[in-house]
Amino acid sequence: MDKRRDKLNKKCSNLKLNNKEIKNLEFSKSEKSIQNCYSTWGKRYYSDYYQSNKAYPPVHTEIIKELLKAENPNSLLDGGCGPASMLRDLSDLGIDLYGFDLTTEMINEAKNIFKEIKLPLNRLWQGSVLNADDFISSPDGKKNFDAAICFGVLPHILKGQEEIVFDNFINVLNSGSIFAIEARNELFSLFSLNRYSKDFFMDKLISENLYTSSEFNYEFVSKTLDNYFDSNLPPLRKGYENELGYDEVTSRLHNPFELCELAKSKGLVDLEILFYHYHALPPLFENKENKKLYREKSLDIENPRDWRGHFLASAFILKGRKV
């Protein structure tokens, strides 16, 4: 990703663009790649990730349901709603549901679902979490909400864009409203024993002053770590057809501690980190022979508030409240 960014920056420099224009061009290119990645998932995304026996059960939906039942909001905004993946499962709560998504195919399928469950189609629209105007672009004129959720979005934004996302959501929330945003857990890398572990060691744990030392042998350290981590796992996710795959576009991990600090800096209170998608053992043990047992025991230890989730869970939800 860094090499592609350097190439883009060099191209922009040749065009004599300023820093703001370079960032806008980079953001635009990233969003277009995300749209391409998800362009063929509209019809099957829900069945693949929420209903399939091959996928981990959607325990995150139950976590959100419990939060919303406790809050009893009148309206909810889902930024990056996909094909109404979560909204369809929240339709029995008596909440006015709204959502937008970056990808045309996702929104088209979301409208199909809303039509089936008899919800207003004018509560869905196409938009980006990085564009403040898109948050107030509901066709029915809705501009403020009692609750907001955001799932599957943070992994696909560039470093530094988190602040934009938080600001945009907070600006459309009523006072006292809750905001729940999901991220892939970077700290799980300490348990996964795969390429994510190696990346975490090399990019985050090893001090920068080592890299600037002429005596530091980067290649030696990198190859040595290959003896301890299976850098071939997990397999890179490719596209189904001609579109880019999940691991061929921006797909980042986030540190729950750092994301919590960002939320604090934005004035959110009552912050809580809720972990999900636990792993009873490192993923390399999940093979055909013990796949069923692995899944059962992982589900047994699902607990959003267990401290071990910092390391055993591959995802988390950061929940906060607007003052």
What features would you highlight for this structure?
seven-stranded mixed β-sheet; 2 domains; 16% strand; 323 residues; alpha/beta; Rossmann fold; 7 strands; globular
Number of separate strands: 7
Determine the fraction of residues in helical runs and give it as a percent range.
Answer: 25-40%
Mean pLDDT: 91
Query: How would a crystallographer describe the biggest sheet?
Result: 7 strands, mixed
What is the top-level CATH class of the largest domain?
A: Alpha Beta
Could you write a compact summary of the structure shown?
The protein is an alpha/beta fold and 323 residues long. The chain has helices at residues 2-14, 19-38, 45-51, 59-71, 104-116, 162-171, 189-192, 195-205, 208-211, 218-225, 256-265, 291-300, 309-312, and strands at residues 75-79, 96-101, 124-126, 145-150, 173-184, 269-278, 313-321. It has 2 domains: 45-186 and 241-321, Vaccinia Virus protein VP39 (Rossmann fold), CATH 3.40.50.150; 195-225, no CATH class.
Folded structure, characterized:
This protein has 323 residues and is α/β, with parallel strands linked by helices. It has two domains: 45-186 and 241-321, Rossmann fold (3-Layer(aba) Sandwich), CATH 3.40.50; 195-225, no CATH class. It is built from 13 helices and seven strands. The chain has a seven-stranded mixed β-sheet, sandwiched between helices. Helix 5 (104-116) links the parallel strand 2 (96-101) and strand 3. The longest helix is centred in the first third of the chain and has 20 residues, at 19-38. The chain starts with a helix and ends with a strand. The model is unreliable at 1-5 (pLDDT under 50).
